[in-house]
Amino acid sequence: MFVAMVEGWETQQRARFLKADTIAARVALVRRLVEFSNQYPWQWRPAEVEAFFDHLRSGPRPIVVSTARGYQTTLRLFMEYVTDARYSWPMVCHQRFGQAPSQIFHEANTIVHVTEYEGQPHRRPLTYDEVQALFDAADARVGVIRSRGARVRWPRCGTPRC
Predict the structure, then answer these.
(1) Cα gap 8→24, rounded to integer Å
(2) Looking at the chain, which terminus has fewer C-beta neighbours within 10 angstroms, N or C?
(3) Do the domain assignments include residue 151?
(4) Tally of domains within the chain
(5) Is the confidence at residue 146, as pLDDT, over 80?
(6) Residue 150: per-residue pLDDT
């Protein structure tokens, strides 16, 4: 049943023209959760994904917030697929296993996007003012070079430096 669910989800994603690498990464994540929880999607409850993300946050290489949010989005999308009655998974699982998959992500166990940038502080993008200061410094540098009598030359389009 799980294999059929995953194959159906892959088909749905290909129908949306998603890239094969994107689909493969998403499926791999779903399989990681199955392996971690030792349960199938129709057995999952919020506690399973909470334990999964707690595990991913620990150890020598804990995941960062942006990665966790992406993982949660992927797993939420998978759960939306398997809980959608249009695909019959809830009905079939209920008939075969006596339980149907349910959405395991909710506002209390997902990451809220509260800041514009969530990466590491030393890798943040420049602010508008910082970009302006950079261009102002570059313009001033051109002025200094010109005052020394040197010519500032810009490459013409079509050259390797353009």
Answers:
(1) 13
(2) C
(3) no
(4) 1
(5) no
(6) 64
